[in-house]
């Protein structure tokens, strides 16, 4: 079982010769902050997260699924019209139980989109590192797949916080009783992970942390540096076919209290047509919690 690391999401799949990406179990890392936010949402009992490619799609999804909580960032800050930014600390302070979300970010959600054709895509942060790796290894081993770890980076450049987290992941994998083959990039990541004695200090060295502090959100860094506080494994469910999308839409509206009261019945058909027209040729990407057992 090969384990390969890519250090930024600005890559061309046909350039990757170490593994076949479409036949890999993939792990996305965006430590500061998208995968930490995703982990926190599910760790605090949130239900599911729609992944938006850009701000326009995020806002359009919000118009259809109006009680979904719209989260995201541009240059670290929440765009106009969003309910929340991309802060795991802020998200952790609200009641998330059974809530649904829409998420759009500069780097992390773009990595998820980049790997959507893979066999399985997980979202890993320090907050859920061991549990995600246990799930990924189990799936890869049972299905004879390799493991690809993608560091999101920052705007196409390598981000030290992501490389460090990937090194921590390799370090944990080395404790597992499997016959892994670690590629050279995995060994580079491991060397970074082993070189640091403090998680918080390692994150603070990154340009991502400095950017976050520059916009007044440095408190997030301490929160997302906590190791293994959530036993959740976010994975990507890709809805490609019309029937899958219709079922998702109808399930949402069947659970909508306003619809049960009869207040939204006149809008149901309008919203449904709007939704399906928007996603005729486009996948609907949903992050849910993967069960290890």
In words, what does this structure look like?
The structure is a single chain. The protein has 293 residues and is α/β, with parallel strands linked by helices. The protein has 2 domains: 2-234, ComB-like (putative 2-phosphosulfolactate phosphatase), CATH 3.90.1560.10; 242-282, no CATH class. It is 42% helix and 17% strand. The protein is built from 13 helices and 10 strands. It has helices spanning 34-43, 55-64, 88-92, 108-114, 129-143, 160-173, 184-195, 199-204, 207-214, 219-224, 242-254, 257-260, 265-278; strands spanning 2-6, 24-29, 48-51, 69-72, 100-104, 120-124, 146-151, 181-182, 234-239, 284-289. Strands 6-2-7-1-8 form a 5-stranded parallel sheet, sandwiched between helices. A 5-stranded mixed sheet has the order 4-5-3-10-9, sandwiched between helices. The model has no long low-confidence stretch (mean pLDDT 92).
């Amino acid at each position: 079982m090969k384990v390969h690391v890519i250090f930024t999401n600005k890559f061309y799949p046909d350039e990757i010769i170490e593994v076949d990406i479409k036949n890999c179990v993939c792990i996305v890392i965006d430590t500061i902050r998208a995968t930490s936010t995703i982990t926190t949402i599910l760790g605090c009992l949130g239900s599911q997260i729609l992944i938006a490619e850009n701000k326009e799609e995020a806002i359009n999804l919000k118009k259809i699924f109006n009680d979904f909580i719209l989260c995201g960032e541009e240059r670290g800050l929440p765009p106009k019209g969003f309910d929340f930014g991309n802060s795991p600390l802020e998200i952790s302070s609200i009641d998330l139980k059974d809530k649904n979300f829409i998420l759009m970010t500069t780097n992390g959600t773009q990595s998820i989109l980049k790997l959507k054709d893979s066999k399985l895509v997980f979202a890993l942060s320090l907050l859920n590192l061991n549990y995600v790796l246990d799930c990924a290894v189990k799936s890869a081993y049972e299905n004879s797949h390799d493991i690809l770890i993608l560091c999101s980076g920052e705007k196409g450049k390598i981000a030290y916080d992501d490389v460090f987290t990937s090194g921590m992941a390799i370090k944990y994998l080395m404790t597992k009783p499997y016959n892994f083959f670690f590629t050279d990039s995995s060994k580079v990541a491991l060397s970074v992970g082993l070189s640091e004695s403090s998680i918080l200090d390692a994150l603070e060295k990154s340009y991502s942390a400095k950017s976050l502090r520059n916009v007044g959100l440095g408190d997030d860094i301490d929160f997302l540096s906590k190791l293994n506080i959530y036993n959740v494994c976010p994975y990507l469910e890709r809805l490609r076919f019309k029937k899958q999308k219709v079922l998702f839409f109808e399930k949402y509206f069947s659970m909508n209290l306003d619809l049960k009261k009869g207040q939204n019945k006149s809008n149901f058909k309008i919203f449904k047509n709007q939704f399906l027209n928007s996603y005729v040729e486009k996948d609907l990407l949903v992050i849910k919690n993967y069960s290890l057992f």
